[in-house]
Model the fold of this input.
Amino acid sequence: HYSIVIPVSDLPNFTYTGVLQPQSTGVGVYASVSRPRITLRRNNGPDAASGAMVQVNRLGNPLFNEVLVSLADKDNYNRTSPTSDARLFAKYAQNPEVAVLINAVYGTSFQTTNRADLVAVFIPDVIRVNTTTGPTTIPGDAAFNRLSFIGGDTIANGSGAQIPAGWPNGRRFGDDAVDIALTAVASGPTFSTITKVGDNVDANDTVYNRTFPYAATPNSGTENSKDPGMMINVGF
Done:
């Protein structure tokens, strides 16, 4: 495992307004994957790659491309950068199809248009991290809640205002991003009434570590303790 320690004073902070947050100062983070434009695959030798690097995937917030962006635009999203999001993809946050589908299946009446709250979370599609707070709670702390601000898990920013301690203010191990996002779709844009919606998976199957690298210890390979007496043999 590797980590990078960067002094907050060295970060290029920007000003933004997030869901249920006052104007905040922080950074935006996303990741992308690129590969050479041409890959030659040989039957009797190693593959050869050439040409300029081409972006084929990117990821910022959980669920934006996977759930909100339409199938027709998913590849386009993966080829572009967050600087294009307001022009190309804001409509998917503004008018979330997932709200339309939930209403159709369950007979609810969640707001399906003019969702400025979702635009504030997803456009541009970067993980926003407020850089004026102190250390936040992590799984195992008494105050930690998997639903972040929806579960009352907040933290004071540099001005003393309470903001989400977890996603969409950064993203911690243990943040139930699916339930937070679906509950936000159901409860916004005003959040005057919180309607909790989720996938009935409320916890990781193993306990998260409280020290670096924080991720839970991975399960073993072919012989798993969850399957006592069972062994898988692989032959070549």
Confidence is low (pLDDT under 50) at residues 229-236. The radius of gyration is 21 Å. The chain is about 20% helix and 20% strand.
